[in-house]
UniProtKB/TrEMBL annotation:
<keyword id="KW-0378">Hydrolase</keyword>
<dbReference type="InterPro" id="IPR000073">
    <property type="entry name" value="AB_hydrolase_1"/>
</dbReference>
<dbReference type="InterPro" id="IPR029058">
    <property type="entry name" value="AB_hydrolase_fold"/>
</dbReference>
<dbReference type="Pfam" id="PF00561">
    <property type="entry name" value="Abhydrolase_1"/>
</dbReference>
<dbReference type="GO" id="GO:0016787">
    <property type="term" value="F:hydrolase activity"/>
</dbReference>
<comment type="similarity">
    <text>Belongs to the AB hydrolase superfamily.</text>
</comment>
<protein>
    <submittedName>
        <fullName>Alpha/beta fold hydrolase</fullName>
    </submittedName>
</protein>
<feature type="domain" description="AB hydrolase-1">
    <location>
        <begin position="18"/>
        <end position="253"/>
    </location>
</feature>
Length: 268
């Protein structure tokens, strides 16, 4: 098996010719797609993977310099596709996985033919008066510092903020366990690369047909972010979901599946 497939703990499922590659969000591994991905196995070839430093990836392959920016993770996706000899891939990205998918699409537009972006955000910091990202910079600085001072407390706080849906506390608990199972130093570097970055400048360069799935009551990626992205991306469609929180593929998988299938069917 290729070292790249081991590095990213890649799993290939499904029977179809068309390829769906699922890119997780921050602090998550491929297991978070278990409520959604199986529904596509009969019609598509499914690619699941973990970011280096997350899940069951090869932690020895982690390079602080490479992964100090999201481009490092985008390069990994391109390498996975090259190793598997994939063509015309649809990337389904959650949260920061959406930005990583967009970067891969810009680098290799002939490879990435569609993007499905779940709760995406190119910039989490407010930049008034034209942009509302959801956070003041000092709030994010505090969140990063909290990772050093109280890692478990950070995981508990962020998981509840991200997941919402308090009537299903097991989902926030799973997210918290995922956050806290990763090496704190690696997780902190990924958090900085995620939350302190500003990729608004790339949006107009994303010519790939894209679906933006925007949740209600999303504290991480407010509706203003989805609307901003939709206005900036020339070939995008935005759908407002009934789902609440930032992880509809876990909290509202049925609606997530239906909207993805609807878009794929209309754009095949």
């Amino acid at each position: 098996m290729s070292n790249i497939l081991i590095r990213n703990n890649v799993h290939v499922l499904g029977e179809g010719n068309n390829v769906l590659l699922f890119a997780p969000g921050f602090g998550c591994d491929q297991n978070m797609w278990r409520f959604v991905a199986p529904d596509f196995q009969k019609a598509y070839r499914i690619i699941l993977f973990d970011y280096v430093g997350s899940g069951r990836s090869d932690y020895a392959a982690y390079d602080s310099t490479k992964y100090s920016e999201l481009n490092g993770y985008a390069e990994d996706i391109i390498e996975i596709c090259a190793t598997l000899e994939l063509e015309e891939v649809t990337i389904i990205g959650h949260s920061v996985g959406s930005t990583i998918g967009m970067l891969a699409a810009i680098k290799r537009p002939e490879l990435v033919t569609k993007l499905i972006l779940i709760g995406p955000s190119p910039c989490y910091v407010n930049d008034p008066p034209k942009y509302f990202g959801g956070f003041e910079k000092e709030d994010l600085d505090g969140l990063i510092n909290m990772m050093e001072l109280n890692y478990i407390g950070w995981g508990n706080y962020l998981s509840k903020l991200v997941m919402k849906n308090p009537d299903r506390p097991e989902l926030a608990q799973e997210l918290e366990e995922s956050f806290c199972s990763t090496d704190p130093d690696i997780q902190r570097e990924f958090a900085i690369a995620t939350f302190m970055s500003d990729y608004r400048i790339i949006l107009s360069d994303v010519d790939t047909p894209s679906l933006i799935l925007q949740c209600q009551e999303d504290a991480i990626a407010p509706i203003e972010v989805g609307e901003y992205m939709s206005n900036q991306m020339p070939n995008s469609t935005m759908r407002q979901m009934k789902a609440t929180g930032h992880c509809p593929h876990m909290s509202h998988p049925k609606e997530t599946i239906e909207l993805i299938k609807e878009y794929l069917t209309a754009n095949e």
